[in-house]
TrEMBL record:
This is Uncharacterized protein. Keywords: Membrane, Transmembrane, Transmembrane helix. It comes from Entotheonella factor. Signal peptide: none annotated. Residues 356-373 have a biased composition (Basic and acidic residues).
């Protein structure tokens, strides 16, 4: 990822990430990654690239905010890259939003104001629902003299910390469910969003091509008729220009002229096809007001381009590759995904509420899980 941004930077991976081990049974089989910060320096682009790569690979992402500076301006980069660009991901449930160092609000006894400011900042980026956590480190906390206030802070912190730890313990189970969820979401998107969008774009393209063909060739025909009428070479319904008569009487030149006319008409038609396709794509991208939809628009545009290649007729209504076989494949994927969900439920659901199923699932999961902090 670093090499894609700056050639040679990949050899300096230690400047971005450093590996450390910890002899703890609680994190055995798990990889915790403390992502680099978003400092505005020469490494910023590479840092963001690494962070995005880590997020894609991670099973759980803890997004920390500083309770000392909950204003939107002070955490602009975090809000943009870890909130606005992630809330519409199919795996958005793996993101936990945490307000850290909440103990700093105890002196002024205004945690509600700080939390409200923080949640307003999140809401401005589109995150209006979900579970939010408020924690602090008791070993480095600000002393809270008021016993009732300290009890309130500690109780809330303990509840949120316990939930975070529980999510970390269950990353193996969550990963399985999330992969299946992404698979289901992708299959549904193909049927309910991608294919209908492509069909709509192809229908627009077909109408534009037909209208433009009619307009251009109609103008050419009108110009030819006008020119011949102006020449005064019509005898009733017969055009008697000497050049035209000689052309009709020479079979070789007649076929050459016919071929040239067909080539010219074909060139004009395919130029119109390209123009109409460009107009449809431009209209599509103008309708994208949200950066989160830009990737989808780019993917649809690429698929649309493939469906408007010169060998594809404008009368094809179905996108390339979307036929009965593809539909059966998507239906089979959805059926298998539902079967996997049922199998996971049978394996991991514990009606008694005990923690044995969770511990057993962690023991059975051999591959390391990744948690981004």
């Amino acid at each position: 990822a670093i090499e894609e941004i700056t050639v040679g930077e990949g050899r300096r991976i230690d400047a971005y990430l450093q590996l450390k081990t910890c002899p703890s049974e609680q994190i055995r089989g798990k990889i915790l990654i403390d992502s680099p910060g978003f400092d505005a320096d020469a490494q910023r682009t590479a840092t963001l690239q690494i962070t995005n790569h880590i997020i894609d690979l991670s099973d759980l992402v803890l997004v920390f905010f500083d309770a000392r500076h909950p204003e939107p301006g002070t955490m602009h980069d975090t809000l943009e890259h870890l909130v606005e660009h992630t809330i519409n991901r199919p795996d958005s449930s793996k993101f936990l939003y945490i307000l850290n160092q909440i103990d700093t609000t105890a002196r002024e006894d205004n945690p509600e104001d700080v939390i409200a400011s923080w949640q307003r900042a999140l809401a401005q980026k589109g995150l209006t629902a979900g579970r939010f956590y408020r924690i602090y480190n008791p070993d480095a906390a600000v002393p809270i003299e008021d016993e009732n206030l300290r009890y309130r802070f500690e109780t809330k912190r303990d509840i949120d910390i316990a939930e975070i730890h529980d999510r970390m313990r269950q990353v193996g189970i969550d990963r399985a469910y999330r992969i299946i969820s992404v698979l289901q979401q992708t299959a549904h998107d193909v049927e309910e969003r991608i294919i209908p969008t492509l069909q709509s774009l192809l229908a627009q393209w077909q109408r534009r091509v037909m209208w433009l063909d009619g307009a251009v060739f109609g103008l050419i025909l009108a110009a030819l008729i006008g020119a011949t009428l102006w020449s005064g070479q019509w005898e009733g319904w017969r055009f008697s220009h000497p050049f035209w008569s000689n052309l009709l009487n020479a079979p070789v030149w007649r076929f050459i002229a016919l071929g040239a006319a067909l080539v010219l008409a074909g060139y004009i038609h395919f130029a119109i096809r390209r123009l109409a396709a460009d107009q449809v794509i431009a209209k599509l991208k103008k309708q994208v007001h949200d950066m989160r939809e830009m990737d989808f628009a780019d993917s649809i545009a690429n698929a649309f381009r493939k469906n408007t290649r010169f060998w594809r007729s404008i009368f094809h209504k179905q996108p390339v590759g979307w036929g009965p076989h593809a539909k059966r494949q998507v239906a089979a994927i959805l059926a298998e995904a539902n079967g996997y969900v049922q199998a996971l439920n049978d394996k991991f659901t514990n009606p008694s509420g005990a923690d044995d199923a969770t511990r057993e699932s962690d023991d059975r999961t051999e591959s390391p899980k990744e948690i981004m902090v």
